[in-house]
Specification:
alpha/beta, binds S-adenosylmethionine, 41% helix, Rossmann fold
Length: 209
């Protein structure tokens, strides 16, 4: 089982031997990989019956029916979560992820990668009583991804930490990516939008520092 570079990075953040709840498993590649390589006990869930049926077929192909559970559900609905579980939610929008996290008791470890609004995601998950334990930035097939491991607990963050990531703000490759992104946005903001332009100039200044 070979994974995409992105899912491989997600796998590196999963605790060995932990029970994993993979919300939005799609084809269950991550669950199969973790079962075979990281001694995890996975519950692969999806809201979409077609995706889950493909997951079930893939699990059968690897003879892992007795090791990987599956469930058709919306987010964490109907799932009994233990504090020691690793909840993995990747490949969805930040607001969908936040909604999912707000509907159930959570475990002490969350591994999350949203497609957008990473600053909002960081802030909202911290509000739920978590701190940022690890952050990974990768480019996979020309697309940038940030993967974050949250753990239950408290750390104080500044606004800028939510924007650039308390760990990634010191990552050279991520800073370069963020600088180019902010610069591109700034160049597209019309001259009369003074406050918005100032915001992006401030962000560029912060990245340079
Ligand atoms: C882009 S795929 C990502 C799959 C995999 N997690 C990954 O990162 O490669 C998003 C998956 O999330 C599922 N999904 C979207 N909203 C969901 C929800 N509220 N609860 C469970 N699954 C959901 C979709 O059906 C789809 O299979």
């Amino acid at each position: 089982m070979t994974l995409s570079k992105r899912l491989e990075m997600v796998a590196t953040l999963v605790d060995e031997s932990a029970r994993v709840i993979d919300v939005g498993c799609d084809h269950a590649y991550l669950d199969i990989y973790l079962t075979l390589n990281n001694n995890n006990k996975c519950l692969a869930t999806d809201i979409n019956i077609n995706a889950l049926n493909i997951a079930i077929n893939n699990i059968k192909k690897y003879n892992l029916e007795n090791k990987i559970e599956t469930k058709l559900t919306d987010g964490l609905k109907g799932i009994k979560v233990d504090s020691s579980d690793n909840i993995v939610i990747c490949g969805m929008g930040a607001h969908t992820i936040i909604d999912i996290l707000n509907t159930n008791k959570l475990s002490d470890t969350l591994i999350i990668s949203s497609n957008n609004n990473i600053d909002i995601l960081r802030k909202e998950v911290v509000k739920l009583g978590f701190y940022i334990d690890s952050e990974i930035f990768i480019i996979d097939k020309n697309k940038p991804y940030v993967i974050i491991k949250f753990k239950r607990g408290f750390k104080k963050y500044k606004k800028i930490d939510y924007i650039f990531g308390p760990i990634l703000k010191d990552n050279k490759e991520y800073k370069k990516y963020m600088y180019e992104k902010c610069n591109k946005i700034l160049n597209n903001i019309s001259k009369d939008k003074i406050i918005l332009r100032l915001k992006y100039k401030y962000l560029l200044h912060k990245i340079k520092k």
